[in-house]
Amino acid sequence: MLYIVLPCYNEEEVLCDSIAKLTAMLDKEMPQEAVRLLCVDDGSRDRTWSLIQELSQSNPRLLGLRLAHNVGHQQALWAGLEAALPHAEAVISIDADLQDDIQVIPRMMADFRAGSDIVYGVRRERRTDTWFKRTTALAFYKLMQWMGCESVYNHADFRLLSRRALAALLSYPERNLFLRGMVAQLGFRTSMQYYDRSERLAGETKYPLSKMLSFALDGITSFSVRPIRLINLLGILFILVGLVVSCKALADFLRGQTMPGWTSLLISLWLIGGALMLAVGITGEYIGKIYTEVKRRPRYFEMERAGDNWENS
Ligand code: UDP
Ligand code: MG
Fold first, then answer.
1. Could you read off the pLDDT of 39-55 as tens digits, one per residue?
2. Is the pTM of this model over 0.85?
3. Ligand nearest to the CA of 79
4. Which of 205, 182, 169 is nearest to 88 (CA)?
5. Could you tell me the pLDDT band of residue 313, with boundaries at 50, 70 and 90?
6. Ligand 2: distance of its center to the CA of 205 in Å?
């Protein structure tokens, strides 16, 4: 049994199309496989859930899971993965807007049959993304790498996980999710499938710049303590510079050449003040992470389910 998990947040414009395309592809390419399409409605405020209910009436493959509140892409995906675990031999996660090429799905299954536990969907190029998205994404991957977080370049959340890889992933207790980093740490037998990413079918991105930035920050602070080390280095550097400056100031004083020196004083005051603030801020970022982890709050609440084939799947 293969589960395809689609997190959906306000996707009324693309959902019907996406399900139709997936169903057509499955009928054509993998008619012999038992497949479920699991749509996780991440607290949408539009007609997404009623569409899922409606579609599940005529489409025996379709299952719906409705979360009580919008918890974000990564947590919604997690909810779907957890729901799939008891029934699935393998799970594929893919965005509901089908920007990722669904023709890769049969190839992923072939890799899985050949023994891969994790098959990464990797974008060959990003011609359809805007220049801005391309450059910021590239900068992000490079930064992550430099920070020491393993990740697969140009791979997002389009991937296949075997049951044992899925069980391993779901055993992570943390609340701050950065799934692509966590999956990269699992190990097991992996392989890659390359594809071209296309444009969103309809509707607009649910990842505005603010969400992208907070996702990037989450990724870095969940996977790397390097920023804290950098602060320490910066602190040592500042102390060294301070020592040199003190020596010079003392020498000037002893020779009776005290300068009016307001400019240098003011500049250093601001620079050091800024560095301190930055340091406190970055440290605070980690303390915030500890805070959310320690609370161990539930990740999401399930509200209702749709589809007739939940049990006998
Ligand atoms: N999504 C979600 N919850 C959110 C935001 C997004 O479940 O709070 C889903 C969304 O429905 C889509 C996927 O996450 O299936 C990726 O979002 P989107 O395509 O808007 O991001 P982009 O491709 O622009 O990075
Ligand atoms: Mg998208």
1. 999 999 999 999 999 99
2. no
3. 1
4. 169
5. low
6. 6
